[in-house]
Write a structure and sequence with these properties.
Amidase signature (AS) enzymes; globular; alpha/beta; 466 residues; eleven-stranded mixed β-sheet
């Protein structure tokens, strides 16, 4: 291969701006890589080479004429297949929506197009961002580039696999209980769930109205910041968005975190639940690295993890059932078994259960907010285990887990999963940085400083292109 697949967005943007490489050259290289790897990775539901090359040629023409739009101009990216794309099917990875072809792009897609991005195609997901990994759907589940026998995490599974494998330089995912951060953790990339209301969900298939988020997935925190800066901002067509200025996140990436205060929420991963030992060690070593860079790291305590996850699950299951109720009544067996197993739980909760969960959510949000008045960021684990064998992920195990990630859907605060090392077997480890509402810039600042001080971003999956 040309080596272009290992470029970060930031690196590629600089080379495109300087006319050292062309968007067409970059796009063709990645299309060739997709062709050589897709039969093993199943990251895509649909590759769009004709559209990609048209967008790349248009970007090349503009750049050569001196009309560089910014760091996403000419950059190949992918979309989880729940983002509406005009004239291109958006299926939710489900038989239920196999023939669905939107007439309009999602707001985030419009913003990426306006920035000159090059859409490479639609990426695999758990069915409607909820049920997976599933083997009874029209398309197979995505595989982990670090070991194709293993799970990517979900539900933004294809997004995680495609970025980690160098099939795209960045991708969008959605996150309702951890669906950006799980695959980011298990595929070894950087994935952000922004503050609730920071990014428009207009044109994105819903799962849970009050918990859904849209966010970026990329190889580095810097690349992630570039993507967020492109898609963030108020949208009058999405009442959940908030009219707040979007900062230039790249300006926050100073490399200096001396004097910052980091609250280590150890009991989430070493107390309330017991995570895999390599995972625990990865987070502990990450905390020591931040301290060595001049941050002040203190152990802190919040309510038990179960309180956060229980509130999230009742709300998520109830709202998800409401979204799909009509189709569940008329087309139940057009859904996969995994999705049915999960979604039908939502029919068992009462209105009282839902209201009490929302009340608990409010109290927990206040609690975490008060803690973040004392600290610049919080630090904890992302997932309890490294990527398991995909055939060992069962219906019961997927539902019974108490995901640490859902804590920050409950509160709505920004949370970034990032690679913090590897196991002896070569599987990625991940830790999570959590910020104050609307302060993604601080999260990026700490994450970028950590990445500069560690070697993990130099290590890529070893994949032979056929």
């Amino acid at each position: 291969m040309s080596g272009l697949e290992n470029l970060t967005i930031s690196e590629a943007a600089g080379r495109i701006k300087r006319k050292e490489i062309s968007p067409v050259e970059l796009t063709k290289a990645l299309l060739a890589r997709i062709e050589g790897l897709e039969k093993r990775l199943h990251a895509f539901i649909r590759v769009t080479p004709d559209q990609a090359l048209r967008a790349a040629r248009a970007a090349e023409k503009e750049v050569m004429a001196g009309r560089w739009r910014g760091p996403m101009h000419g950059i190949p990216y992918g979309l989880k297949d729940i983002f509406d794309t005009a004239g291109i099917p958006t299926t939710g990875h489900s038989k239920v929506a196999m023939t669905r072809v939107p007439k309009e792009d999602a707001t985030t897609v419009k913003r990426l197009k306006a920035a000159g991005g090059v859409l490479m195609g639609k990426l695999s997901t758990h069915e409607f961002a909820f049920g997976g990994p599933s083997f009874d759907l029209p398309w197979p589940p995505a595989r982990n580039p670090w070991d194709v026998s293993r799970f990517t995490g979900g539900s933004s599974s294809g997004s995680g696999a495609a970025v980690a494998a160098g099939l795209v330089l960045g991708a969008l995912g959605s996150d309702t209980g951890g669906s950006i951060r799980h695959p980011s953790a298990q595929c070894g990339i950087a994935g952000l769930k922004p503050t609730y209301g920071r990014v428009s969900k207009k044109g994105v298939l819903p799962l849970s109205f009050s918990l859904d988020n849209v966010g970026p997935m990329a190889w580095t925190a810097r690349d992630n910041a570039i993507l967020l800066g492109t898609i963030a901002g108020y949208d009058p067509e999405d009442p959940s968005t908030v009219d707040r200025p979007v900062p230039n996140y790249l300006r926050a990436l100073t490399g200096n975190i001396k004097g910052l205060k980091v609250g280590l929420v150890r009991h989430f991963y070493d107390g309330d639940i017991k995570v895999q030992e390599e995972v625990r060690q990865g987070v502990e070593t990450g905390a020591k690295t931040l301290a060595s860079l001049g941050a002040k790291v203190d152990e802190v305590r919040l309510s038990p993890l179960h309180d956060y996850t229980a509130a999230c699950w009742v709300i998520l299951a109830s709202e998800a059932y409401a979204v799909h109720e009509e189709n569940l009544r008329s087309r139940l067996y057009d859904y996969g078994a995994n999705f049915r197993f999960r979604i039908l739980c939502g029919s068992l909760f009462s209105a009282v259960d839902y209201v009490q969960a929302q009340r608990a959510r409010r109290a927990l949000t206040v609690e975490m907010g008060k803690m973040l008045e004392k600290y610049d960021v919080l630090l904890t684990a992302t997932v309890p285990v490294t990527a398991p064998k995909i055939r060992e992920v069962t219906l019961v195990s997927a539902v019974a887990a108490r995901p640490i990630t859902s804590t920050f859907n409950t509160t709505g605060f920004p949370a970034l999963a990032m690679c913090c090392g590897f196991t002896p077997a070569g599987l990625p480890l991940s830790m999570t940085l959590v910020g104050k509402p609307w302060d993604e810039a601080m999260v990026y600042r700490v994450a970028d400083a950590y990445e500069r001080a560690t070697p993990w971003r130099e290590r890529r999956p070893k994949l032979r292109v056929r």
